[in-house]
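#onboarding

Welcome to the new folks! Below is a worked example of what a typical request in this channel looks like: someone posts a single protein sequence, and someone else replies with the predicted structure as tokens. Don't worry about understanding the tokens yet, we'll cover that in week two.

Example request:
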Amino acid sequence: MEENAKKGLGIAAVILGGFSILCCTCLGFGMIPAIVGMIFSIICIVKGTGSGKTLGIVGIILNGIGILLGVYILFSLAMMIDWNNVMDPQIWEQLDQIDPNDQNQVRDWMQQFFRMDISYY
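Example response:
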């Protein structure tokens, strides 16, 4: 029974690792299952034997890739933001003058916060 529990944790770690890799583009939210999966993987490696330990090693690799991709995505998103404009109170005061139904006004106001052109999105 104990070995089956470790094998189950190993399977969960591998699934969470794969899920975190697939979800890494979701603004870094894939890091949450990767961290949980990493904990499961460590438990499997430390306490497991045989296939449980093997699943733990595979889980460590997949969850590590998921964490690295999540950090990369968050860092990339942070680099796209023009942080000087985010802290400017005059820009936030302009928000009251924008018609929320006019897509062009909203896009032009939001463009101030990005270092890239978002007019195509």
